[in-house]
Amino acid sequence: MDVGNSVPADAIFEPLLQFEMEMGTFLSEWQHCDHLSTYLARMISHSRADPVRHSNFFSSALNELLEVSFRGGSSSGQIGLAIYRNGPTERVQITFPCPPGQVPFYREAVSKIDRSDAHSRYLDAISTDMAPSRESILLDLAINFDARIRIEENTSPAVTLIVDLPLEGLVS
After folding, report:
1. Is residue 91 predicted with pLDDT exceeding 60?
2. How far apart are CA 39 and CA 25, in angstroms?
3. pLDDT tens for residues 58-72?
């Protein structure tokens, strides 16, 4: 399911980095999530026109995706993250264990991102939620980062979110 206006889903992306971690470890060390996203962002941003700006944007977006997996993932299995590049666009592919009953939530949340009421739903969510919900985080990525988001459902109890971030073209 594709959402947004960015690079075609079948475009060729150059791999930049990838890692896997036990989900239980990831969940138990949540306080390090910001450090992880900042480190990865710095690693991939050095060759951009404005590396500091790019790193800040990418770190924020990646931190949001990691939060989605933190809020919806189960403690068994592995979280996997791969980052790719095609021109001005970074592609983040994040796979995390997900209880089968949660998969429809992700499918529906991704499908709602491109609806005409997405912006008003996002504003409502951020003005009323005490903590960001998984859906408001995905809306944030689509609206504020012009992200294109799709979902792949694996055969195991996991979900893969593929997010294209055209960060070089964002206006700060």
Report:
1. yes
2. 18
3. 999 999 999 888 877
